[in-house]
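Methods, example record. To illustrate the input and output format used throughout this study, we show the complete record for TIGR03960 family B12-binding radical SAM protein. The sequence lines were provided to the predictor; the line carrying structure tokens was produced by it.
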Amino acid sequence: MSVAPAAAAPSAANSVWPQLEPLLPRVSKPIQYVGGELGAVVKDWASAAVRWALMYPDAYEVGLPNQGVQILYEVLNEQPDVLAERTYAVWPDLEALMRAHGVPQFTVDAHRPVRDFDVFGVSFSTELGYTNLLTAIDLAGIPLLAADRGDEHPVVVAGGHAAFNPEPIADFLDAAVLGDGEEAVLEITEIVRAWKAEGSPGGRDELLLRLARTESVYVPRFYDVDYLPDGRIQRVVPNRPDVPFRVHKRTTMDLDAWPYPKKPLVPLAETVHERYAVEIFRGCTRGCRFCQAGMITRPVRERSITTVGQMVAEGLEFSGFSEVGLLSLSSADHSEIGDMCSGLAEQYAGTNVSLSLPSTRVDAFNIDLAQELSRNGRRTGLTFAPEGGSERIRKVINKMVSKEDLIRTVVTAYTNGWRQVKLYFMCGLPTETDEDVLEIAQMAHEVIRAGRAATGSRDIRCTVSIGGFVPKPHTPFQWAAMARPEVIDHRLKLLKQEINSDRSLGRAIGYRYHDGEPSLIEGLLSRGDRRVGAVIRRVWENGGRFDGWSEHFSYRRWVDAAAEVLPAYGVDLDWFTTRERDELEVLPWDHLDSGLDKDWLWQDWQDSMSEYEQDDCRWTPCFDCGVCPSMDTEIQIGPTGRKLLPLTPVSGNGLRVPS
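The corresponding predicted structure is encoded as:
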């Protein structure tokens, strides 16, 4: 039986569905390529002045729930003369068939070839998606190198957190956008619309120049990189007089004016998150020194409690989801989180709707919040992230949480009905010793003991999850040396032994970890410069795909590619990863302005070595990180003093009952 396409394309010649459909029975999870989800949009091709193909460079099951892509998809499609469709990375089984049968990279909405669009926008939340970008560009029939593209090819634009250092993929990009995308994509659309309406004067180069002149779109071809004899960067400078020396990030200030997604995509196939997600605030000023997301998204901007309530009501009614995720980098820090959770819990009491928070700060979780999150009897998973095993290392990383705070918080969860919590830590942090890591086991043991004592039950579990530390650009740790994989793996082995040293407690503790090898490669990609692009290309040519998936990642492939390519530049893999940088070194991203003052970041790096803890500037005087004055922004926090009332009655399935 054949599978019907998502929607008939306006022109049969514009759709690859007739070529694609016969291939789908031969691949795993063919439903992920069909499209037609609730919330999907298919617009008339001919009536659109500007056409975007949006990609999250991973499989459908990871990419579809991505909040950033969903927001931009909706923002763009609300414009009457703009068309936006989605594409995701295809699994290797379909890639092979597409190459054999001449099927290009396609969108899932109307199965149109990506190469036919004006803009190909790719959102990166992790650098390990870079090889998937190359696959998509190549399958689309677009030249891999930006320098080889002509007027007929789409402009390839990167965004997302990893775009704050796009230098490793600069050769493959036409442009990159730093920061928030809502207003940025509309500005880019206006520039493309005007350029096309004028008859595309000056060709591709003129379009890219117009984008660069905004000072918030980075066009790598207009910048040259000079190197010192020892391999360090001497300078990054514009190669023409009409582009800026520095490119600035975009900051969307009034989140209430951007209540997206209004019509969330409801997946046809299983995905990693199936919920209606509302971003309740953006930015974080907690100052965790390892956290790129917290640093680059400053300042804090809260969405009002009333807008959150309206979004939840409309999003659930449209989608039928039974879980609401209240998302941010530290959701329990919202100034009205208590009223928000109690109001939503009250509104959906007696229904199948549950509330969830992402990873929660230990010192922001309390019994009132626990009760509201479990009001309807459904308890979604709780994850707490102490990050460091010892009090000393938590001071180094500025994660101001004591062991007593953690025990008290987890016991609160256990006594409110949770039987399973997850604790997240990192291994390989600056100044870390074996003893710092072994304290993770002691903490886990005490969590189980305290939970059993508080509940009188032995049915208490916790999972210890360990990730490898990766220094990121625009953080105080951007200068740090990485620990070698064998050091990480040695400490993880010691930790496992220590957890199991008490069998009674060890049986109640799950243990999950990522070994040191993928982290080292992520470190190469996160702090690399343009010379790393040749490594990425070599890995891709040798079969690298889906490097964020352990079953597809090959450490040996990356090490071999680096050994083959980097010596020609006088550097190697260790030079990019395990080497500490000094204060005066020009970093590959110094010309890309996140708003953070580099001198402030350096001082915070020095403060970390002396284990000095930095306060949260939301509640204390400004400590001059630089964001607010340089970006002409300010912290936006409540409380508004409003409530979610009046409550709208809902039926048992969580949908509003018509009056």
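Annotations derived from this record:
The chain is about 35% helix and 15% strand.
Residues 1-13, 651-659 have pLDDT under 50 and may be disordered.
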